[in-house]
């Protein structure tokens, strides 16, 4: 399949550019700008999101270097994200700063299956452990989603869409001023799809389609009343119903199996800059998760989990080249399985300090943190990240040596299979990054090596969880992006990842090779994008005999185009899996063939 990727890459370079000549000049990038770029997290803007045309977050993230997304069947099926070869539960997800990992799930992971891109302003991807700033769960990295803020003049938008699998959806948002001091943002969505069989229809006995129904709403208010601090508050509500099958392979259809979920989150942030030494921020955050399985054969049908977090942080400017941040936080998580496991809680407290110091073309980030968990006691995290920008070359280098931890989940501690003496999982990561900038082109290279110890695995001898496992991952990424002409832009990325458990077996569902190629066009009133997505071979478990197997590689081609009909009216068309490739992400579970989705949006000004 790699040959298709190479041919596609070559074809991008052969696209006509209206006879324009591209002159690449080695203009020197300012040291400050280069320094910020080389140490920055990966940021996906609202413009990037709009240009790709995807509806759900996991579709967007699947095209990012170093990330592999696995969806179990159609929309709504369990969707996991593997970052730098680590487990999905090792990725911390924040929405407007609120931790969204579900404490009622066995691994405290976040299910990416439902989160749409409605009202998203930007997405930040932190690669590598960052327990210094976020505590538990940030072993592989952090996905931070920020929603849009209000505007000084009222602006509203309405969008409708529909397509394959009897899919339909409506999105609406409005934002503007409220009184003299506040800005308001409201958004809501209704989405329905008939889907396809969760158990792949390539096997006999799987004929029923499994659909998804989703509703969501968001609110965000921020402002600075005269004489008071800056306030930001908001919340998000989401409700879904997903139809499921019993598993993968032949004759797994289930007409009655469904999963209802509800997620809620809220936050309040108060910040005020008094002077260079005193700029405190106070935050209160909370999230609620509920899952109800409608399956007569399931013993554990009703799960509920809560997260609560209170924090106080202060940032001090010690000079033009030095900044010091320090903070404290307290958190409580709780979980209950109705009729099986009464509500259990775990409290933790964290204290952290970080410093950023610059000397000309050099920069150093240092951080340290102590977390106290009521079960296992104290854990210390650290982060050391130096960077350097060359004077004669548009080249920046950075390195990172950091640690992280993941506290045992309440399920792992207190369920029938739990063990109350569990300790935290521990990770150490070394990362090296280089960024070369020539005119508007950027080439980014990164290598990493991670070791996770005291991994919590299920012990089949004792039928209990224990700190018996280990996980090692290493690899690298290479990305090149920039303009092909005034109207065309291109991007190519490649990821290499090796991930092994303590028995030196390859970690499941994580490909060694993955690549992305895309070309985009923008010349009003048209815009469009053609992208190729290659996923190499990876290990999985056979859906019926439960032996290890190697899944074949696959290559997907996606197309998106939009047209501005009028100033405020835009239509778009997305074609997924243009080549109608038959493939599996999880053995025995279904995937979509060629599918079409069209949308129409109108902006009210």
Describe this protein's structure.
The chain has six helices and 31 strands. The longest helix has 12 residues, at 2-13. The strands form four sheets. It has a 22-stranded antiparallel barrel. A five-stranded mixed beta sheet has the order 1-6-7-4-5. A two-stranded antiparallel ribbon has the order 2-3. The radius of gyration is 24 Å and the shape is globular. The relative contact order is 0.14. The protein is mostly beta strands and 605 residues long. It has a single domain, classed as Maltoporin, Chain A (Beta Barrel), CATH 2.40.170.20. The model is unreliable at 1-28 (pLDDT under 50).
At a glance:
With 605 residues, the chain is mainly beta. The chain is built from 6 helices and 31 strands.
- CA radius of gyration is 24 Å
Number of strands: 31
Q: Mean of residue pLDDT?
A: 90
Distance between the termini: 47 Å
Helix content: under 10%
- CATH class placement: Mainly Beta
CATH fold annotation: Maltoporin, Chain A
Structural class by SSE content:
mainly beta
Q: Extract low-pLDDT stretches.
A: 1-28
CATH superfamily placement: TonB-dependent receptor, beta-barrel domain
Number of helices: 6
Describe the secondary structure blueprint for this structure:
Layout: H1 2-13, H2 31-39, E1 42-45, H3 46-52, H4 57-61, E2 67-71, E3 79-83, E4 91-95, E5 98-99, E6 120-127, H5 131-134, E7 141-147, E8 155-163, E9 167-178, E10 182-196, E11 210-223, E12 230-243, E13 258-271, E14 280-294, E15 302-319, E16 322-337, E17 341-359, E18 362-373, E19 377-389, E20 395-406, H6 410-414, E21 425-438, E22 441-459, E23 464-483, E24 488-501, E25 513-523, E26 526-535, E27 538-541, E28 548-551, E29 554-564, E30 569-576, E31 595-604
Parallel strand pairs: 4-7
Antiparallel strand pairs: 1-6, 2-3, 4-5, 6-7, 8-9, 8-31, 9-10, 10-11, 11-12, 12-13, 13-14, 14-15, 15-16, 16-17, 17-18, 18-19, 19-20, 20-21, 21-22, 22-23, 23-24, 24-25, 25-26, 26-29, 27-28, 29-30, 30-31
């Amino acid at each position: 399949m790699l040959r298709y990727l190479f041919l596609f890459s070559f074809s991008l370079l052969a696209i006509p550019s209206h006879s324009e000549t591209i002159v690449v000049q080695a203009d020197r990038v300012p040291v400050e700008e280069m320094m910020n770029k080389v140490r920055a997290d990966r940021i996906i803007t609202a413009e990037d999101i709009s240009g790709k045309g995807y509806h759900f977050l996991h579709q967007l993230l699947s095209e990012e270097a170093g990330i592999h997304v696995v969806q179990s069947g159609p929309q709504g099926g369990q969707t996991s994200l593997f970052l730098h070869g680590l487990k999905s539960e090792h990725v911390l997800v924040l929405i407007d700063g609120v931790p969204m990992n579900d404490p009622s799930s066995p691994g405290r992971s976040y299910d990416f299956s439902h989160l749409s891109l409605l009202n998203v302003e930007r997405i930040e991807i932190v690669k590598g452990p960052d327990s210094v700033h976020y505590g538990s769960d940030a072993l592989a990295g952090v996905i931070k989603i920020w929603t849009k803020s209000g505007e000084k003049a009222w602006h509203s938008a309405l969008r409708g869409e529909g397509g394959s699998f009897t899919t339909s959806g409506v999105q609406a948002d409005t934002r503007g001023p409220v009184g003299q001091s506040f800005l308001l943002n409201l958004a809501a969505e209704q989405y329905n799809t008939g889907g396809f069989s969760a158990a792949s229809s390539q096997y006999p006995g799987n004929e029923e389609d499994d659909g998804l129904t989703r509703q969501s709403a968001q609110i965000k208010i921020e402002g600075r009343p005269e004489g008071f601090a800056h306030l930001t508050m908001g919340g998000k509500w989401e409700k879904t119903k997903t139809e499921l099958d019993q598993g993968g392979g032949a004759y797994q259809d289930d007409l009655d199996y469904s999963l209802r979920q509800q997620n809620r989150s809220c936050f309040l942030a108060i910040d005020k800059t008094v002077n260079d030494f005193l700029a405190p921020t106070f935050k209160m955050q909370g999230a609620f998760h509920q899952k109800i399985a409608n399956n007569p054969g399931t013993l554990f049908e009703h799960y509920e989990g809560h997260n609560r977090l209170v924090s106080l942080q202060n940032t001090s400017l010690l000079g033009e080249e030095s900044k010091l941040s320090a903070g404290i936080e307290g958190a409580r998580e709780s979980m209950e399985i109705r009729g099986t496991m009464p509500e259990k809680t775990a409290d933790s407290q964290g204290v952290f300090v970080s410093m950023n110091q610059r000397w000309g073309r050099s920069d150093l980030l240092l951080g340290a943190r102590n977390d106290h968990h009521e079960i296992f006691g104290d854990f210390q995290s650290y982060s050391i990240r130096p960077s350097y920008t060359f004077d004669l070359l548009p080249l920046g280098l950075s390195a990172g040596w950091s640690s992280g931890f993941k506290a045992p989940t309440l399920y792992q501690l207190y369920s029938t299979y739990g063990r109350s003496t569990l300790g935290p999982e521990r990770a150490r990561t070394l990362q090296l990054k280089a960024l070369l900038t020539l005119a508007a082109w950027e080439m980014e290279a990164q290598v990493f090596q991670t070791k996770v110890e005291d991994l919590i695995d299920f012990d089949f001898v004792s039928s209990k969880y224990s700190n018996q496992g280990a996980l090692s991952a290493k690899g690298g990424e290479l990305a090149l992006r920039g303009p092909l002409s005034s109207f065309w832009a291109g991007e190519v990325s490649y990821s290499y990842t090796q991930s092994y458990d303590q028995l030196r077996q390859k970690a499941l569902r994580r490909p060694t090779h993955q690549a992305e190629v895309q070309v985009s066009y923008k010349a009003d009133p048209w815009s469009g994008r053609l992208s190729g997505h290659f996923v190499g071979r990876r290990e999985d478990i056979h859906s019926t005999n439960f032996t290890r197997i190697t899944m074949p590689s696959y290559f997907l081609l996606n197309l998106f185009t939009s047209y501005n009909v009028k100033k405020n009216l835009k239509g778009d068309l997305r074609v997924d899996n243009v080549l109608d490739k038959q493939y599996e992400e999880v053995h025995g579970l279904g995937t979509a063939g060629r599918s079409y989705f069209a949308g129409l949006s109108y902006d009210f000004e």
